[in-house]
Specification:
The protein has 13 helices and 13 strands. It is α/β, with parallel strands linked by helices and about 350 residues long. The protein folds into 2 domains: about 190 residues, Glycogen Phosphorylase B (Rossmann fold); about 150 residues, Rossmann fold. The strands form 2 sheets. The chain has a 7-stranded parallel sheet. This is Glycosyltransferase family 4 protein.
Amino acid sequence: MRIAQVSPLYESVPPKMYGGTERVVSYLTEELVNQGHQVTLFASGDSVTKARLIAHTNEALRLGQTFDPLAHHIVQMQEVIDRIEEFDLLHFHTDYLHFPFTFSNPKPHLTTLHGRLDLPELQYIYKKFGCQPVVSISNSQRLPINRANWQGTIYHGLPFDLYEKGSGEGNYVVFMGRISHEKRPDRAIEIARRAGINIKIAAKIDKVDKEYFDTKISHLMEQPHVEFIGEVGEEKKGEILKNAKALLFPIEWPEPFGMVMIEAMACGTPVIAYHRGSVPEVIDRGETGFIVNSLEEAVKALENIELLDRGQIRRIFEKRFSAKVMASNYVKVYEKLLNRHKPIHPIFGKPNTKLAG
């Protein structure tokens, strides 16, 4: 199958540091290549891939001085359309940006929606573009947009060898990802304080969250049980996670997926998460972690964390959240879309494989 993977240009594929969407695009692209498909990746020039790379910027937009990122993405969309006959199917990871380009185009295409969908403007978008075939990354994510043309829910996956199971002997818990109100690092710090355990904060601070960090979080970092590490890459992330007793995920928003949860599971590290968004779909209660609704419940869960089997957590990750499983599920959707687009035989009324090429 000849597949185009179209990634946002804000981060490289894979990203050098933080970057959820671009990491998923990387893992999917590489696994599709491993499975024998001909894949072309549309991404920034500093991306690293076994697929054919078509770049529209020399480096990820976040790394340079970019005044209008939309301009780069519009050129990227046109480049995809200019090359459309080179592919059997187009797979976009660029939200709804390409919808006007693909709205009336007969080429099979699919969009994975990576972000939150409870924004009021999206109702306006999907009223106009409701026929666009889309995939959700959790069943919870899709709830606000009933009118969308859902092709399925496909959970994110990681390569088997990206992380290894650890012992959890570091005598600390970890908060990892991004410093923001919806992620609630303050809750994580308080849970660790009440439980009498150290916590490592390995998280990125975006410009939009700088004021929140300065006014609500920075003073909490001065407590003796808190170690602020900042944004980390893959290698350091794995070391931190596999030695942690648990990952704290005390979110306050409808999390679309939560990649860090399966990263922890890949290390055999249990997750203590608040009951929000995708959490009940990702975490198996009492096996890969605990789902809680309060600080008190989180502290109690942490006291019982040793009851969970880290080997079993890793096995569940391999069964449910590997890149191989993710890619295979996408291929099923690709095949379904391609079958729909086969020309109809004028006499027998069945898809004509000869006409379809």
